[in-house]
Amino acid sequence: MKAIVIEAPGAEDVLRIGEVPPPELGASELLIRVRTTALNRADLLQRQGLYPPPPGASPLLGLECAGEVLAVGSDVAAWSAGDRVMALLAGGAYAEQVVVHHGSAMRMPESLSWEEAGALPEVFLTAYLNLFELGAVPDGGSVLIHGGGSGVGTAAIQLCKEAGIRCIVTAGSEAKLARCRELGASAAIDYNAGDFAPKVIEATGKRGVDVVLDCVGGRYLAQNIDCLALDGKLVVIGLIGGAKAEINLAKLLMRRLQVIGSTLRTRSVEQKQALVTSFVARFGDAIAAGRIKPIIEKVFPLAEAPAAHRLMQSSAHFGKIVLRVS
After folding, report:
1. pLDDT band at residue 326 using 50, 70 and 90 as cut-offs
2. pTM higher than 0.85 for the full model?
3. DSSP-derived secondary structure for 278-325
4. d(CA 88, CA 94)
């Protein structure tokens, strides 16, 4: 089958179309014909040799997909060949076929196009896991989302709006800030225009937010702590701003704060199945009704994966970048 292969880590041009053996179907798995997949920052890191796939995962890029079920494993009862599916993967979606544990698959509603369905699983499940499960944002609470124009950011804004959660975001241009407000952000802050923490405190009437979802890391640590309300939680999901920083532990003690590190890719199939089940139960109806869907910046054919990676690297996009596989 055709897939994007990498002979050696490097810049975008190491991505090329090649032939690889089709995946082998396990007893608890679905074999999917991939229609679409979407880019995530992890793909860029893996391409550069900085983020190896977890043990047992496909070495190919791609953490999500949408397509049709071609075959089901002997232990799978709820799926049949021909079903339309969108799935969370540990790797392998930059290819014509992929296998996935049935618990990481979701039924694709008619409200979504192939492009939207292929761009949904990774970012929406990431936002849901870190805000609603690990962050446990309370009803009527508030959150701060860094990178509001990213795939995770645009997903998080929509989930918060649907749940009645007040959402403050940061982004790097007035155009992105305006689009975040249109999606449902109650306040949007330009991270290039000075410290964001005082603006978050002002926007919350000096209370602070219940949860900060942070993809930046070290550079933002001190300000993130200052943004949190009593009993608040900082959930760190990325390190584009560095992996090290000093922290004032007295602030954690006095305000009963928590700092949580989180990744989705390395979680067990049982954990992912529980997450998918919980997400669909809470937000599946909103997706089916069309109130929630991925925001698509651009769609590339699979062979143009290098150009798609260059666009993501530039951070000029808003929402998701999609690859059309078949």
Report:
1. very high
2. yes
3. HHHHHHHHHHHTTSS-PPEEEEEEGGGHHHHHHHHHHT---SEEEEE-
4. 13
